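[step 3/7] inverse_fold.run input=structure_tokens len=132
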């Protein structure tokens, strides 16, 4: 198994590939931040559900993608802050994704949340990804 330098990007890429291939679910290695991202994606309606599977030697996230009329809800996503270049934003500078049709995922001092939630709570932080 290869060593990952960016596990968040790996999780998001697995999600995008799952939707583009038409698969109903995918698995990824578990971490708390990936579970928080999956929770946000579920709250915003991009996935049906997720669960932590602890059967093997390493826990995994099992995520069910959401489809409407046979088409995936996820159109695309983009990783913004990367290990080589971190992108931070104040509460009033959090970007709107596709004029409000998408979401920004932000890591704040109060945890990982959507861009809209961070703006309402007046929190800034690291912009992890844009999803639409």
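[step 3/7] decode complete -> sequence:
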């Amino acid at each position: 198994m290869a060593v990952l330098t960016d596990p968040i990007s790996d999780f998001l890429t697995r999600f995008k590939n799952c939707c583009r291939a038409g698969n109903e679910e995918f698995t990824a290695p578990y971490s708390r931040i990936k579970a928080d991202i999956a929770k946000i994606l579920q709250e915003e309606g991009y996935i049906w559900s997720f669960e932590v599977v602890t059967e093997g030697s390493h826990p995994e996230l099992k995520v069910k993608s959401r489809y409407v009329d046979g088409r995936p809800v996820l159109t695309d996503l983009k990783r913004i802050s990367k290990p080589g270049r971190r992108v931070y934003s104040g509460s009033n500078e959090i970007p709107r994704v596709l004029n409000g049709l998408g979401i920004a995922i932000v890591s704040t001092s109060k945890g990982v949340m959507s861009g809209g939630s961070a703006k309402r709570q007046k929190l800034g932080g690291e912009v992890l990804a844009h999803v639409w």
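[step 4/7] annotate
The beta strands are 25-29, 47-53, 60-65, 67-68, 71-72, 77-79, 88-89, 103-108, 111-114, 125-131.
The chain has a mean pLDDT of 95.
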